Amino acid sequence: MKPEPLLLATPSGDALKLRPEGPWTAANVSALETLSRSVGADVDRSSVVTLDLSGVSALDTLGAWILEKLSRRAASSGRSAEFVSVADHFSGLMDEMRQVNRHTPAPAAAQNPVLLRLGDLGRSTVGAREDVTIFLQMLGALFMAVIGVLRRPRSLRLTSLVYQLYRIGWQAIPIVVLITFLIGAIIAQQGFFHFRRFGAESYTVDMVGILVLRELGVLIVAIMVAGRSGSAYTAELGSMKMREEIDALSTMGLDPVHVLILPRVAALVMALPILAFIGSIAALYGGGLVAQFYGGMSPAIYIARLHEAISVTHFEVGILKAPFMALVIGIVACSEGLRVKGSAESLGRQTTTSVVKSIFLVIVLDGLFAIFFASIGM
Amino acid sequence: MDESQQEFAIRVRDLVVGFGRQTVLDHLTLDVRRGEILGLVGASGGGKSVLMRTIIGLIPRQGGSIDVMGQPVGGRKEGAATTWGILFQQGALFSSLTVRQNVQFPLRENLVLSQELMDEIAIAKLEMVGLRAQDADKYPSELSGGMTKRVALARALALDPPILFLDEPTSGLDPIAAGDFDALIATLQKTLGLTVFMVTHDLASLTTVCDRVAALADGKIVAIGPMRELLQSEHPWVRAYFHGKRSQMLQHEMR
Q1: Which of A94, A99, A75, A100 is nearest to A24 (CA)?
Q2: Distant-in-sequence, close-in-space partners of B131: CB < 8 Å, separation ≥ 6
Q3: Of A66, A101, A344, which has the smallest distance from its Cβ to B96's Cβ?
Q4: Beta-carbon neighbour count of residue A378 at 10 Å?
Q5: A27 interfaces chain B, CB cutoff of 8 Å
Q6: Cα–chain center distance at B156
Q7: Is B61 helix (H, G, I), strand (E, B) or coil?
Q8: What is the pLDDT of residues A85-114, one digit of tens each?
Q9: Interface ipTM above 0.85
Q10: What mean pLDDT do residues A347-363 have?
């Protein structure tokens, strides 16, 4: 049977003799806590407490601390406590314990929950202003980098730009095509299903064409690119920041905006219109397939209807938005990446923020463009 | 328990470890006595860290046996924190936890105890390794290199394990901080009765705190003994290590 720790208390008048026995180690911690609590009242009542350590068979930091805590409790308010017969091999540890936990800093005072909420609100308001500042700073830095490249075209990081184009443009095509194809098909199916009731099936084609070219094609693609490439940018730049790679670049006299951020944002600005175009075509194709197999409309009629329903203006409205959305995604993703601090948690948080913020801004921007195009009559 | 189990904290017999075709440790045998500080030296990439990581079970072995505190080391990982504490080279602190939570982590996972006692033990450990209670609420990213090592040491010692593994504890510290750290390890070793297994290149640590030094070359322990004996060793690699230009200069200065 394993030996259990014991604590024998023998009171004699004002004095109390405590005799711990057995292994006072971390493995028995719950027993030790109970034991030390059980003698607490006796310790408070006695004016002289003697702790006899001769019966202790094993002692570690945890056990030693519990004993030391008992003795401190006994020695408070002018009473006295002492250790007797401390074995040689325990004395070092007991001495060490006597030094610790002497200067516990006062715990932070509990704050009024209402004030705490108000404080949070204030901080996030200031934080929102800071977000705008950071966005504008990044926009300005990018603008300066573009001017630098225009002045000295050879300073453009062509390899990096092409590589980023390959990664976020070329490699994104399959998933973009698949998703937009499905979206186009679903819209067409809904159109046929609901318009059929009042015999307006042929207008489904108008709806698919205008919706896809003006709004959905570019919006869906931008949201997918924000999730797919924006998050990758944030994570890449964030881990570069964590490993001080960005600092290394700066100390070599290179501008991180020029070397890392400009190629990435430029690649996005070039790739997103192309992806939006491919996505729109895939959506129209999906709508056409549904028209043939679900709506019973032959491809020739679908194309003819499409020809009547849409004009180049619709296409222009959609595709003009793409580079601006790409710019917003790129700036948010890169500036969030540079805000990563040392910890792994912060990397995850900034990546989430980057995706959420860029999707939100893309939708807001889309709304602003809708108002703009409506007022200029496009 | 027979006598050999009393005497040795770690017994490694005929250990073979390799990756692919490359054999890193080739029938290596090593005994670490209870209550000693053993320093392990060897060429960079020569298998020092591999030996340490094999003993603590991070790398599978191809042959041989390892006994720690009289128990063969197997696949079982539970209770590992009560057998040994490990100080990784970069500290390996959990970056999403504060210093206090880092030190409390092994306590929380292995024992049932009150939050109050856990806080006190964490502060006690931090003060034992020379940190202040004010540092307890910092995050690892806010610590200097020396402080990171100290926190990592406090975490390694959280459960008072009988064996402490240190992987290059003084690398990246300035000589004063490294000296303090050596002294700290020597003090803790005496107070807590630890067995310390230290991988190091720091000649000063080897001379000042290590009871014995083992030299690892060609996948084997080629020399083991107190520093004095190692300096007399005839093995060519050991001679090159301790009598090379750099070492000679340092030893000369020390004299």
Answers
A1: A94
A2: B99, B147, B150, B151, B154
A3: A344
A4: 13
A5: yes
A6: 10
A7: coil
A8: 777 777 777 877 777 777 766 666 777 889
A9: no
A10: 94
